[in-house]
Amino acid sequence: MIKWVFDNSLGNLIVFCLLLIGLRSGMFVFHSGNIEPIIQVGFLSKYTNYVNKFPVLAIVITTLLVLFKGFFINKMVINYNILEKPGYSVFFFYVLLNSAFPSNLMLNNVNIAEVFFLFGIIMIYRFIKNNYAKNILFISAMLFGLSAMCIPEFYWSIILLISSVIIFKPVKVSDVVVILTGMFMPYYLIASLSFLISNELQFLNVWEFWIVVFKEVKFEWGKNGMDLLVIGVTMIYGLFGLARFFGTFYRSNVETRRSKLAMAVISFFVSFIFIYRSNQYEEYFSLFTIPLSMVLPAIFEDKKINIWKEFFLLLWMVSIFISMFKLVR
User: Fold this and answer.
1) C-beta of residue 8 within 8 angstroms of C-beta of residue 1
2) At how many degrees (to 10) do helices 55-79 and 281-295 cross?
3) What is the pTM of this model?
4) Does residue 174 contact residue 134 with C-beta atoms inside 8 Å?
5) Which of 102, 140, 147, 253 fits 116 for a cystine, CB–CB 3.0-4.6 Å?
6) Where does the pLDDT of residue 118 fall: very low under 50, low under 70, confident under 90, or very high at 90 and above?
7) What angle do CA 169, 171, 177 make, to 5 degrees?
8) pLDDT digits (tens, 9 = 90+) for 104-117
9) How far apart are CA 289 and CA 304, in angstroms?
């Protein structure tokens, strides 16, 4: 089973896609389409809430987004030597974890923000590889600014970008100016267009999209206990994977070490947001699956087949399956 996950054949990718589509369709049918969408905030919330009024359309869009993002992350890991010969394991873990909670079948701002965020990550890697060109840094900051219009916590990407620059080169005032200009550019453009064509959005209420607001979420062990168990076990596996991920850090070449170090900063940033928003874990777990999908394959990448690893992988997948269909209440 483990070797099949690490196979990089086209047929394997097609099988994974079909399994995901079948799994998410089965979840939708099992829950009889009665999946309560998460109340949205952000500049696209009006449209995401409208799409969620048509559950079939919402599940088609979210499934396509998950497939795209899973393939995108898998390709990024290969192109920038973050993992050695991952096959489609990153894609597999990402799409599986993204289906762990039924509410993620509906469209939400996290799904959309992740797209801008992932393109922003690619720009960080290109910034590092292209002799720290400021135009690439500006594009990266602008993409993170767009993601912050969907998830206010991504406004903190200013810290992420400055940290990424500090790690690889001395920071100049011009770097900070470029980052701040890029981050605020989406706000300025959206607010300006809204001012011209809309009476609903103005400069002040567009600014409110960046205000972090906590929603009170009731916790019940009977309802949420299994979900937290799945998240807890997944995080433990993630810690083991992280240890394996950096276990070969100093044996890697300089290019690979730079790629892993950049991903470590990004993963810490994403993990902090998830922990900070843990009371809304169903909504933000999709974001947390980005670093998880990169470190989990490190546990199972050994060439030698270990029965205990097969067993724990199967046990973990069964727990996710139980969470998907809410078999334990």
Assistant:
1) no
2) 30
3) 0.86
4) yes
5) 147
6) very high
7) 135
8) 888 888 888 899 99
9) 26
